[in-house]
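Reference record:
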Amino acid sequence: MSDAEPYRAWQTFTFTGPNGHVREVDLFIATPAGLFLVEIKSHPGTAVNHGSTWLFRDGDKTRTIENPLHFTDLKAKELKGQLEKAARKLRVKDPLPRIEAVVFLSAENLKCRLDEFQRQRVYGRDKLEASTGLQGIWTGFLNQPPASERSRVTPSLSRQLPKLMHEIGIARLHKAGRVGPYELSEKSSDSGPTWEDYLASNPSLPNDYPRRVRVFLTERTATDE
C-alpha cells in the first residue's frame, strides 16, 4: 500500500457485534476504492465446490469449508453498524461507505476450480493469476478505482477511522482456551453466525490426530435455557 491517505489497514482483530457475538477479522482495509473486509483462507491445493461447500484437495488431504463470503458479508454489515454508532457518538460527519466483503485464497500453489457463482468476490495472489485462475487481490480488486463516488474513501474519513475503531473496542485475537484436555488454536478455522470451529490438539498425546471443536455462541439477551 501507498504510505499516504486514505490507505489504512487493521489485521487479525476482534470486535463485538450488536448481538454480543465476538467476530474475528483477518483484514479491514481502506483504499481510495472503498472499505473492505477481507477473509483470508490459506488452504493449499485445488479448490472445487459442491454447491456452497468448498473442498481444497492437496495430495491425500481434503479440507472442507462453507463459502466464507456470506458470513464475511454479515460481519462487514455488523462492523459498519458499530462504526456508524461510534461516528454518531463522536460526531464524525464524514459518511461511511458500504464495507465490501471479499475472500482472498492466499496459498501459492492454489488452483481455483470453483464455478462461476462461487468464485464471485474471490481473489488469489498477485502475479500468480495464470496458475491460480483468479485475479490478484491487490491489482484486480483492492487497488482499482472506486465503483462510484459513494464508495470512495476520502482522506478526511481515513483520518477518522482510528478513533472509530478504538471506540468500538477492537481487540487482538485471543485463544478460546481449552476443552477438556484439548487446546484450541488462536484463530477459528471456520465460522458461521452462531458457531466457530477451532483446530484442537491434545498436548499429552503428541501423535494424536488433530480434532475439530465447535463452539456455539449465545445471544447477548439469551435466557439461561
DSSP finds four helices and 15 strands in the chain. The CA atoms of residues 5 and 155 lie 5 Å apart. The chain has a mean pLDDT of 92.
